[in-house]
Amino acid sequence: MPAMTIMQGKKGLVVGIANERSYAWYIAQSLHKAGAECVFTHLPGEKMERRARLAIEALGIENPTLISMDAASDDDLDRVFGELGEIDFLVHSIAFADKDWLKEGKFAATPREVFTQALDISAYTLMAMAHRAAPLMKNGGSIISMSYLGAVRAVPGYNVMGVAKSALESATRYLAMELGEQNIRVNSISGGPLKTLSSMAVGGFSSILDWVEEKAPLKRNVTGDDVGNSATWLLSDMSSGVTGQVLYVDCGYSSVGL
User: Fold this and answer.
1) Which of 3, 203, 233, 236 has the most neighbouring CB atoms within 10 Å?
2) Alpha helices in 89-157 (DSSP H)
3) Burial (CB count within 10 angstroms: exposed 0-12, middle 13-18, buried 19+), residue 2
């Protein structure tokens, strides 16, 4: 099947587009080009809806379907998934940690509430969404989330987010085991550092970009297109035998260490 139509006839939910610089935006771009029908969520509030709508319309999607959702609210999750109807895929591309604690030398002192919130938004929500999405995937489906190398290695300044991403990757494996009998695949993409609003909150981020460009085997930083196209492959039937995996799309960044 031609690459431009590998998602033809597929419908799914994309969670996490806030602007045109996020991984979720590049994933949606690739899915749209491949023929998928995407439904989008945005954070509550007119400002957040406007920002998300502008980003999505930049993809060339006319009259996109946007639904307000606070991922920390079970009521909101119930409402959103209750409105979807049958779907084939789910993109979980959200994470959060208080930026004041994403600095070198501020991990051990992380407050309990900061830790709990990071784990809730960044990891638990994958489980909560998968639980609600599974009954909507009548013919099987594919779920992906976004991780980072800080899940398996200590990255300066990544701190509590690294712990949350570790939980996300573990949840990916357990979900894959549980949902496999329903022909639902669950995978995660560990993308390399990309300049986004959230990544720039991590202390020392610019130096990481410089290091990757110098040391990574491909001698460059990852692009949004690299990750977007890999996501489409994982969400398509072309990866029908792949589940419970973390796919590293980082120009070899993970293979050479920090």
Assistant:
1) 236
2) 112-119, 125-133
3) exposed
Give SS3 for 6.
coil
Which pLDDT value is given to residue 2? 43
Does 199 have pLDDT greater than 80? no
d(CA 20, CA 115): 28
Amino acid at the residue 156: P
Query: Among the options 23, 26, 148, 253, which is catalytic?
Result: 148
| Local structure of residue 190 (DSSP, 8 states) | E
The CA distance from 81 to 75, in Å, is 10
Instruction: Tell me, yes or no, if 148 is annotated catalytic.
Output: yes
Q: Tokens for 164, please give them.
A: 């949350």
Digit-coded pLDDT (tens) for 132-171:
999 999 999 999 999 999 999 998 899 999 999 999 999 9
Our answer to whether residue 158 is catalytic in this structure is yes
Closest CA to 186 of 77, 119, 71, 92: 92
pLDDT of residue 200: 52
What is the edge-to-edge ordering of all strands in the sheet holding 65-68? 65-68, 37-42, 11-15, 89-92, 141-147, 184-191, 246-249
Torsion of CA 173, 228, 22, 97, to 10 degrees: 10
pTM, two decimals, is 0.93
The conformational region for residue 238 under phi > 0 = left, psi -120 to 50 = alpha, else beta, is: alpha
**158, 174, 248, 253: which is the annotated catalytic residue?**
158
What secondary structure does DSSP assign to 203-216, as a single string?
TTHHHHHHHHHHHS
Dihedral angle, C-alpha 28, 194, 115, 155, nearest 10 °: 140
